[in-house]
Structures are given as structure tokens and as C-alpha cells.
Amino acid sequence: MTVNNSGDPIHTTNAPQGDPYSESMIEASADPCDTKNHLRGDPATENQRLIEQWLNQYSLYHQNPLNKKIHYLCVPLIVLSILGLLWSIPMPQVIASLGTWFNAATLVIILASLYYIRLSPRLAIGMGIAALASIFMLEHTEQLLGVRVWQASILLFVLAWVGQFIGHHIEGKRPAFANDLQFLLIGPLWILADLYRRLGMTY
Fold first, then answer.
1. Could you report the per-residue pLDDT of 185-203, keeping only the tens digit for each?
2. Which is it for the CA torsion 144, 133, 201, 66, positive or negative?
3. How many Å apart are CA 165 and CA 53, to the nearest integer?
4. Inter-residue contact 89 to 148 (CB < 8 Å)
5. What pTM was estimated for this model as a whole?
6. Alpha-carbon dihedral sign for residues 171, 61, 125, 148
7. Closest Cα to residue 149, out of 82, 75, 65, 78?
């Protein structure tokens, strides 16, 4: 299977818009890749918002309750660890002199925010708040933990990915990003969207 470069999610199912995590989504296929060609051009699928399509497709890879719980813990840790590694990249003096927040981590946050705004402005706001909280934590990591940011980030990164692969072993499916790398950006939105729904918020 090739990576979808169109910017749209791989069409695999016509999931109900009201509950993108419904068990009924997996009835069409045990393997999310099997029905790609069958539903291409399905009017009901095409009429879904792009964010709903992405979340529906991501959810197909995360039906096992234990795997879901693992992802709820590990995905935020992976995001934090990646930001921490980016935060630790030395910046040219002219940029570093502007302040500690002017670094590769904030640049990636800005670029990711533009992508998220295209999918869902409301989710983008939530991701922005989470990103600011992450940056605040990174800025005070050395003071609170007594270790360098990159050291803590590497440890979190390794442990969280071990958890992810254990979860997918339990699920019996490979990670979603194996089919489309854009799912690496969708994972955090999937968790945030679930939180929005639990709080009765729309996105």
C-alpha cells in the first residue's frame, strides 16, 4: 500500500458522524486497508468533514480498550518528548538572544497549528493550549527534575513508544502511521477530540 499524498485520509469506512469511535466502524473490514477502493467516491463518506474522516480512520486502528488507554497516556508523552528534543537543539545566538521560547520546538508548534486549523479551528485551540503547557513544563524541567531536557525527553520517548507498540501488539494491527505518516499528527487530535466529546464540546 502506498502513502496517500493528497492530504486526505485513506477512505476505509463510512463511519457515523456522531460517534467516530463506534464499534460499527470495524464491521466493514478487519483490516482498514482492505476497503480503500470499495468506498472511494462514497457520497456519505465524501460529505463528512475532513477532521471526521481522519479521526474515523485513526480509530479503526484503536478499537481494543487497553490499547486506547495506552494511547491516551503514551501519545501525549511522545508529543512532549519530541518537543523536548526540539527544544534542546542549539539556536544561533541572534535567535537565542530573543528568549528561551524562540527555538525549533515553537517553530514546529506553529507549523502544526496551521495544519490543525485547516482541519478544525476548535481542536487547534485546544492543541495550542496543550502546546503552551508543554513549553512551560520544558522551560522548568531542569529546575524541577534536576536533569537536562534532552535526557528526560529521550527517556520519555523510548518508554512511550515501547508502550505504543505493546498496545498495537494487543490490538493486532500495525500503527496507523505505517499507512500514512499524517496519522502521526492525527493521534493527538484523536485524544483531544475524545476529551471534547466527554466535556460536551463540539469540534
1. 999 999 999 999 999 999 9
2. negative
3. 24
4. no
5. 0.74
6. positive
7. 82
